[in-house]
Amino acid sequence: MDETASKIAEFLLQIKAIKLQPEQPFTWASGWKSPIYCDNRVALSYPRVRTFIRQELVKLIESKFGRPDLIAGVATAAIAPGVLVAEAMGLPFVYIRASAKDHGRQNTIEGEVQANQSAVVIEDLISTGGRYSLSNYDHLLQQAIQSGYVRKADLPALEAWRKNPEKWKGI
Question: Which ranges constitute the DSSP H helices of the chain?
Fold first, then answer.
C-alpha cells in the first residue's frame, strides 16, 4: 500500500492536481484556510494516471469488500472515476447528489439501486477523515519534499495544518 500511496502522491503532484501553498493558503468552501488544494479531476486528462488510479481502486475494493453489487460515485468529481471502476469490474454504476434536484424526478440517486444491494461509494477526496484511500497527506508531504515541490522549511506549517485544520490560519 505504501508504494501505491507514494505513486499516487507523485502522480498528483506531477500533473498539478495538488497544489501546496503554505504561504498563500486557499480558502475552502467551508471558510477554512488550507495550504493544500486538490482537484483530482485533472487526473482524467492523463491516461496513464487515470488508468493507474482505476486499477488501484479496483484492487482496493476487491481486497476490502470482495465484489459489491454496484459502484456509486459522489457527484460531481467522483462520477468519472466511479464509472471507470464500475466498467473495469463489470458492475452497474449510480451517482449520488448532495441534494435532490429541484426539477424532474427530484432524484438524490441517479441510476437503478435495488433493496439490499451492496455498494461501494467512491469519493474523489477526503479532507478531514475517512475510511479507505489510495494515498494520504503523509505520503503527499514525503513526495513533495523528495521532489522539491516544497521546501523543508515549509514542513512545520504543513504539519500544523494537519494537526488542526479548522483553526489553521497560515504562516
Answer: 2-14, 47-65, 79-89, 137-146, 155-163
CATH of the domain at 153: 3.40.50.2020
* Angle between helices 2-14 and 47-65 in degrees, nearest 10: 150
168 falls within a domain? no
User: pLDDT-derived band of residue 130, with 50, 70 and 90 as boundaries?
Assistant: low
Residue 31 corresponds to which cell in the numbers above? 471558510
First to last CA, the chain: 32
What's the CA gap between 168 and 146, in Å, rounded? 25
**Taking the complete model, does pTM exceed 0.85, yes or no?**
yes
Phi, psi (rounded to 5 degrees) for 97: -90, 155
